[in-house]
Design a protein that fits this description.
The protein is of the alpha/beta class. It is built from 24 helices and 19 strands. The longest helix has 56 residues. Pfam families: EF-hand_5, EF-hand_7, IQ, Metallophos.
Amino acid sequence: MFSFTEGCGCVSFRGGRRARSLGDDSSSCRSSEIEQEVPKKIGKRMLNGDCTMKALAPFLKFWKKDDVSMTKAERTMKAAILIQQWYRRYLARMEVRRRYTWTIFQSIEYAGEQDQVKLYNFFNALLSHMRETSGRPSSERTSRTASVMEQIFSEESDEGGGVDETAPPKNCREPDIEFPLQRKDIDLLIEAFRKKKHRLHPKLVAQILKEASQMLKRLPNINVATTSISSQITICGDLHGKLDDLLVIFHKNGLPSPENPYIFNGDFVDRGKKGLEVLLLLLACMLTFPGGVYLNRGNHEDLIMNTRYGFIREVHQKYRHNAERLLKLIENVYRWLPLGTIINNRVFVVHGGISDSTDLDMLRSMERDKYASLLRPPLNEGAAPGAEGIDKVEWKQVFDILWSDPQSTGGCVANALRGAGTYFGPDVTTSFLNKNKLSFIIRSHECKPGGYEILHDGNVITIFSASNYYELGSNKGAYLKLCGNALDRQFVQYTAAVSRTRRLTFRQRVGLVESSAMRELHSHIMTARRTLEATFRSMDLDQSGFISISDWCYAMEETTHLGLPWRMLKDKLVRTDPDTRRVRYMDTFDLLANKIGRKSDAQTVVETLYKNKRSLEAIFKILDKDNSGFITLEEFSEACQLLGKYMPNPMTQEQLVDICRLMDINKDGLVDLNEFLESFRLAEKNLHEDEHILAEMKAS
């Protein structure tokens, strides 16, 4: 035990005191214990937050002293405490910024998925009234798959299409890969993908997809994995086209093999730029190491989701002349991916989660290949006219395990944030585990800052393996190793592109992620501009251009439904009058912030529809009931009335007449296909022109 002595910075120990002459100055005591102990140990502990104020009470009697009368040790202690207080405030501010940035990214991501589900509810309502365009009998599926297998793939060239930034240089020799695949072929694939030296010939890509489909067909709906041979198994979560993360996992944990098995828990593609490489590498590993790789289906193993989130665009960029043929093969792979995996009869690994109605026996016995897309379910073949054409009980079973998320509260409710699946509580988890004699659940589907999260008293584990998911430095990736018969858990975290993130300070990383989040938020706000502006003006009774902060926050949430802390974000979106404390609401749409930085990848519903011409053509054919090649007012009105429940605002007969007349460009009383497609293009063009004019008027 030690205490400060009078007059100097020396320390008094129980066994005696180190004395100093009155003539000594403070600098002559550099070898004293206080110089050794306090600045080096206590000061360091203070900065790390290890010392409590109670423990430091004996040292704080000097706090009210004048700086001149303080000894050197006292000044050191005061400086350490001040630095600690400042650092804690700084960390708190950074944590607040990180949290609301994370909330922005996650809310916008889930809102996009919700829009996608709503959009295809619209499609399903149309397709359910035209049997021949939807689900097919299993025999027809088989014959169609056989025809795909026999397709001929042409050479790729640089003619046509835009520039493919991921394409290898010309005159590069392709990797020499032979079937059946062996370990050396995996090394060649990794080398080719890592160094971008080669683009695989479309025939080779097709061969990998065909062989993988044949192997997947032989697997059950729910895989059975064991650690009896390997004594360990590794579970990886969402990769989302992040090839760097997959290579980091293989580098740290080794390539798959029967002695080092892996489970990849869905969402291999979309969002990232290397989704095709990730998918091909995983399928090649499965073919090379039977029993060493288990693949589960995720909610993004779905061509409809791929349309919105980038994978289809990626395939078209890399294989312009063979994209459609390859996408049919990829769809066949999706059909046959197992829905989950059970390890040692104790651990259920599934992409999303469960619900209170999840039935493993039903999941094991269904025909999974008929669900080419969960967003466009097949119709029952023998359903009577006017009867329900979709087996909703079976469909919901698959939907719930691929789209659900855990919640901290009890019960099971619809997942309104995503628009599909459920939120399931700890009681639902416990009931499911007891019923099926399982120990815990491993799932993915949600990005986590540290790459993993443990919920429901350890019964639910979330694993997410795509680092830098939202932006550089936004999150770590992780994988989970289960070791031994006891299945002991070992989490491994990592970050791809370490060389780039190391050059950034903590503040720079938070700022980079925050800027990206604000750009995404601004883009989302602009898609709802008309509704939002009308709401603001209805609140501005005196037309002053200002409304209260509460009204602004209410309008933002009621229009966007993002669930964000709008009061906290207002200083980044609008200016506030210092006298009246009212916000200038038109600042919400300031385009200056969106002109800086990268262009948003988000697409409006109109853009999605117009870029998917085939879907529009299918809608046109459905509306054209008599197959005359023209849509009459009666046909259009009947279809819109049928779909009224999917429209945010039901339309009157007069409004329907006006819409049909607007689409009738040549005014002949009928709408043909070209007029139908052109109407969507003009609507989008006019929307952008209106926004541009408003921006110019505001600037002037």
